[in-house]
């Protein structure tokens, strides 16, 4: 009986850890996404300095969680996200009108990283 209770407690602990991980991933990606929204608003007003500052805030948020992201997210997803940050920053510095496509790509990578943490048939199999 004692083994079953320990196994049940361990299972509950693992479930709680998974739920907590989902919460952390959602909160991180939401905060980064909010900063990207500010960057988009500034770029649409052609305030590229403000857009770069908001993008830098988003990157700082992401890099500030590097220990977490390196442990829980897949490396190819992280590489794609980092490349997308870099590409968007470069386009904003050049005031290139192609920045919306780079922003969409960055948001896509951020969304994919977040989705991979959620439970679905695709993430199980």
The secondary-structure element order is: HHHHHH
Give a quick account of the main beta sheet: strands, pairing sense, barrel closure. Answer: none
Q: Share of helix among residues? A: over 70%
The secondary structure category is mainly alpha
- Return the average pLDDT rounded to an integer: 90
**What ranges have pLDDT less than 50 throughout 5 or more consecutive residues?**
none
User: Which CATH class is shown?
Assistant: Mainly Alpha
- Tally of DSSP β-strands: 0
Could you tell me the radius of gyration in angstroms? 18 Å
> What is the CATH architecture descriptor?
Up-down Bundle
How would you summarize what this structure contains?
With 125 residues, this protein is an all-alpha fold.
What would you note in describing this structure?
The protein is mainly α. The chain has a single domain, classed as Four Helix Bundle (Hemerythrin (Met), subunit A) (Up-down Bundle), CATH 1.20.120. 87% of the residues lie in helices and 0% in strands. The protein contains 6 helices and no strands. The protein has helices spanning 2-44, 48-64, 66-72, 75-93, 99-117, 121-124. Helix 1 runs antiparallel to helix 5 (99-117), helix 2 runs antiparallel to helix 4 (75-93) and helix 4 (75-93) runs antiparallel to helix 5. The longest helix is centred in the first third of the chain and has 43 residues, at 2-44. The chain is elongated and about 65 Å long. The chain starts with a helix and ends with a helix. 18% of the residues are buried.
Describe the structure using short key phrases.
Four Helix Bundle (Hemerythrin (Met), subunit A); single chain; 125 residues; elongated; 6 helices; mainly alpha
